[in-house]
Amino acid sequence: MTGPAPRPTRLEQRLGVTLPLLQAGMGGVAGPELCAAVSRAGAGGVLGLYKEPPERIRRLVADTAAQTDRPFGINLVPEVLAPDRCRAQLDTAVGVLPERAFVTFYGLPAPDLLAAAVRAGLPVVVQVGTAPAAGRALEQGADVVVLQGVEAGGHLLGALPALPLLRAVRRDHPDAVLAVAGGIATGADLARAVTEGADGAMAGTLFAAARESEAHPEFKRRIVAATAADTVVTTVFDIGWPNRPHRVLRNATTAPGPRQPARFIATTTAPDGRRLPVPRYSAAVPSIRTEGRIEDMAMYCGDSCERITATEPGAALVDRIRAEYRRALRRTRPEHRRTPRHTRPDPARQEGEVPG
Ligand SMILES: Cc1cc2nc3c(=O)[nH]c(=O)nc-3n(C[C@H](O)[C@H](O)[C@H](O)COP(=O)(O)O)c2cc1C
Questions:
Q1: How far is CA 82 from the centre of its chain?
Q2: Do 112 and 250 lie in a common domain?
Q3: What is the per-residue pLDDT across 160-185, written as a single tens digit (0 to 9) for each?
Q4: How far apart are CA 71 and CA 99, in angstroms?
Q5: Disulfide check for 18: which of 7, 42, 71, 257 has CB 3.0–4.6 Å away?
Q6: Residue 37 and residue 227: Cα distance in Å, rounded?
Q7: Residues 194, 229: one domain?
Q8: Is 205 in the pocket of ligand 1 (CB under 6 A)?
Q9: Ligand 1 centroid distance, CA of 27 (Å)
């Protein structure tokens, strides 16, 4: 029972989703099962393509498209690849994506790459961490800009919390479609962002803990058990993705002190089936394909872990967020209550559950 639908936000209208929530594309974590489960439930599922080669991208997209008739996205991270390899990822993906799909970038892409994505005709979502980068993304044709706050899990693009960043960008771009990333784990968090002027939000940690996520079970268990105080911003996990601070769960590798030797601490299976050693300080996330000292690896995790209390199936998670979002919006924004004023029940009796 979720109650009457609030007016769709511009993010929902632009991407064709029925809840203004995007699941972050997460390399090694967000595969076809998670992306499709989130998409079928009406939110924006996103495939993490990180360093995937073109032939795997074709398979991953086809596998996802076969599991959902609703919109879903792909995620590219231009800063971890040479420009021609990232362009090959984009060209391969747009060649096989259905019309209902969208493209997401982590960080402001080089102008020619962003222009190529815009020319492809699918909606383009760009995640940034500063107001100037948001302005450039919009100027260059991004349909949606995701504003990442410093409370976010994973690599960090800026230094401001999400809501102050949103306010700064909204002031200069009143009509832009803006979402926030960082700090979103409940429907109340999402409603707060929308009430503050966002058209929606993106969440990563929340979905990394979901049942269909390919994160290692020990990593999921630790997200569920953690509070914000268990996370730390560090630069130590720089092998494979240098020069970018990241928020992770504190562990032996993030402990203060001199850098330890970058010995192999785990093995993981590459997209082509080869077993690869994982050195301490690798940026690779522990996934279902990883064996070894999971607890010493890069467990990207946002402050939002504070409110993540279980590993849920993606569909149940999205349904729960939708119900919480509607309930919270009706409390904070009377215009979202569809019931005419004169027939509304006595507010004193509305405590707790809202009728579905
Ligand atoms: C495990 C994990 C992996 C991530 N990997 C990616 C990635 O490959 N590409 C990307 O655009 N963002 C990635 N992110 C960052 C998200 O896009 C987003 O900024 C972040 O998850 C928002 O904060 P939250 O985790 O508190 O929801 C990752 C986040 C996490 C937690």
A1: 23
A2: no
A3: 999 999 999 999 999 999 999 999 99
A4: 8
A5: 42
A6: 26
A7: no
A8: yes
A9: 9
